[in-house]
# Entry
Amino acid sequence: MNKGRYTAIRTAGSTVVLTFLAAQFCLAQDYRQFPGAAMDSRTLTIQEKVEDLYSSGDYDRALLIYEKELAPLGDKYAQYMVGFMHLTGKGVEESPADALAWYRLAAERDEVPFTKARDALREMLEPSELEQSDVVFSALWQRYGDRKLILDLINQDLDILRSENGGRPAEPRGASLAAGYSGNGTSDGYYRRVRARLAERLQYLGSTRDAEDAGIADPEDVTGLEAEIRQELKALDIH
# Structure
């Protein structure tokens, strides 16, 4: 890559980061929430820790946390930061192609700061880099994309509902957890909440991009999982 062009790419990336930080307050209000597990104190602590690590220059540890702990939760800011660190060579070898793949993942909910970062970087890459980025993005989408993550969560809800004992150790002792799909008995409230959560997640699934829309050529794992889930939902008359 031409040194001057790469400098321009890095400069553009830095400008986008500053724009993103300035927009964080608006983003927090408008962000379309992913219906995953509720944010717990552990996750909040990890988010605070990784920001401190990044600010102090401990990029190796920051990258590990962003990529391995937060990105798999559907944390779009973490996915964006993995991309930025690939772009600027912080904690990892510089790779604009990898950076764009992560930026595309971060932008899949169409939040403006992330889409601007994605589009600005995409315009500056060569065709060969774009092809390389497509390959990386395909793998990322099938591991950390919203459609994959929400399908996993839907499957977890179905596991609970199909189980004879519900698999919920927090239920009060002596309570029957054998209600299953019927929702009868002392655990009715719990199963009602699971069904309500499942309905929310199914609705969210409908708003995510499928493989074709995302530009994924061979999404066997994701499409296979979705086919199995939809077959069971149909059999159980759950929509």
